[in-house]
Backbone:
């Protein structure tokens, strides 16, 4: 998988996407993550990527020309399955979308900034808009990092145990059950006996019941 992230702040993405499972995936050649500096596609000395809004409202807007040039350059190198814009009013990101994107080959993520982007970019260049929540960030870099992290970790071989991702919260539409590790008794706080029983069928049944109960209590809208 290759993910090209178009941004005005590539340095903001370097640390979040250079460690742990994401680093392992890159080192194994499972994922290639590139940061494309939008300012490299400007023509003026100040490397301007924003301008005032038509209509006179407050806030600067990302210009169409550098974005178009950046996307056109990338598309001249390879075909892309999705060109994603990180937007507060996009579809709400969830595990189902992460699973879907993990099956793609090449993806572009455009990080918004300022008041947003010229709407013609959304009309003519973007194939999908994604939001990570109902709030506004300073820029789309953190959203792009969240999307990239959640997608790349799903690639076969990225995790040391490929089965692990299948038991994550939301994979089956439910929250994950409670989990425990040693010691079995700490300050009198004990691990449920069922998990120490060695009875796989009983453990599976208990875990499902716990997942269902936790989802009903904490996230009933998922049911």
Residues:
């Amino acid at each position: 998988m290759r993910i090209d992230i178009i941004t005005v702040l590539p340095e903001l993405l370097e640390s979040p996407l250079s460690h742990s499972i994401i680093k392992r995936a890159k080192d194994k050649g499972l994922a290639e993550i590139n940061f494309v500096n939008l300012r490299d596609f400007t023509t003026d000395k100040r490397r301007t990527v924003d301008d005032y809004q038509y209509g006179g409202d407050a806030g600067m807007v990302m210009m169409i020309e550098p974005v178009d040039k950046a996307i056109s350059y990338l598309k001249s190198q390879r075909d892309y399955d999705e060109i994603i814009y990180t937007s507060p009013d996009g579809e709400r990101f969830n595990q189902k979308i992460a699973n879907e994107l993990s099956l793609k080959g090449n993806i572009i993520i455009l990080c918004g900034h300022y008041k947003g982007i010229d709407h013609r970019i959304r009309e003519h260049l973007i194939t999908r808009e994604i939001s990570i929540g109902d709030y506004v960030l300073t820029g789309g870099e953190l959203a792009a990092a969240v999307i990239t992290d959640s997608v790349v970790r799903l690639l076969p071989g990225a995790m040391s145990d490929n089965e692990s991702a299948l038991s994550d919260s939301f994979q089956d539409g439910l929250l994950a059950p409670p989990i425990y590790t040693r010691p079995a008794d700490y300050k009198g706080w004990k691990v449920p006996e069922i998990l120490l029983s060695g009875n796989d069928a009983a453990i599976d049944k208990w875990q499902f019941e716990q997942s269902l109960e936790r989802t009903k209590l904490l996230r009933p809208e998922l049911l």
Q: What stands out?
A: Helices lie at 11-14, 20-27, 64-77, 95-101, 119-124, 141-152, 200-218.
